[in-house]
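Board notes (copied after class):
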Amino acid sequence: MRHRSLLILTTVLTTGALTLTACGSRDKKDDNGGGDKKTTVVIGVDAPLTGQNSATGLGIQYGVQIAVDDANAKNLVPGVKFEVKALDDKALPPTGQQNATALVANKDVLGVVGPLNSGVAQTMQQVFATANLVEISPSNTNPTLTQGKDWAAGNKTRPFKTYFRTATTDAIQGGFAADYAVNTLKKKSVFVVDDKQTYGAGLAALFKQGFTKAGGKVAGEDHVNVGDKDFATLVTKIKNSGADLVYYGGQYDEAQIVTKQLKDSGAKLPLFGGDGIYSDTFITTAGKASEGDLATSVGEPVDGLPAAKDFIQKYKDKKYPGDYGTYGGYSYDAATAIIKAIGNVVKDGKVPADARQQIVAEVQKSQFDGIAGKVSFDEFGDTTNKRLTVYQVTNGKWKAVKSGTYDAG
């Protein structure tokens, strides 16, 4: 549910006023080598760059940075020099909303990549929509963001035409994981845990639905708080439940501690989670306790995609922090979609007054082969790339064990 207050209403109205002058001119110029002048266009990034979820957040930031560097090196949009403005939302919804307002107020920002967290996205969408500023998330998976609150009942309505994503939704991810758990792992009973956040709770509910539909049984359920460190009570509940699998809806920050404390207690149950736990940090922190744990993530393994080879090499050569493997490729593709759209609107460095609105329309028409797969969007702003992969920790590394998709019906 999206609550409204006088403060939020004031923010939105102020944002709307800012858009009246946001794209009227581009006076900021930069020298380009031999003296040619170029108009500066900024691609905004919002993600958790410190604290909770920062490993994946940094992967988003630098995925965009490489896309922008490539566009500048290839002179992809003549007359334009691209820059990145990355803001840290710390995985906090109110901070994300503040960042959205700041990006809208910057007249040079013509598109935004992010955020990482679905709960943060809920506070940003209206701000960007009021300003006609395109937003593409490489990682949000909650279905309500694109299909509305009644999507599960079959009543799909797109809330914001400015919002897109290059990651497929939890309606597919939850069922895909559940099908694998029952039919491949042969698990019969699951204990479901979530972190009470928009992403985690939503994904856990969809996994549970898929697991029971496939013939499995839910042995128990519980919730944790973001930032918790002691899971002794939860571990006891899991051990007493008789479950042969633990499913965790949430991010790696808590999941890596849950699995370690569970294994240290003598329970050798695998922990299965979504893309929120698919991070090298999960393995590093949990250590040997992570062996055998599983995660689903969007798309095919980026390390095995020929189109992503150059991107990965650049990421490593630059020694950028964070995990590129989770959303780095999808961030690169999201930024590229925005850059291509800008190229169709901004000619010879001249930015029309309604550039932001035109760019939204151009992004909707995107059709190209990205480094992580085909990039195009349906009528809801969702990616048409529905591929997912199950990974398992094997000898201290994530190993892809199955790629495919799922018919959510």
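Comment from the instructor: Residues 229 and 257 are 7 Å apart (CA to CA). Residues 6-168+304-375 form a domain with the Rossmann fold fold (CATH 3.40.50.2300).
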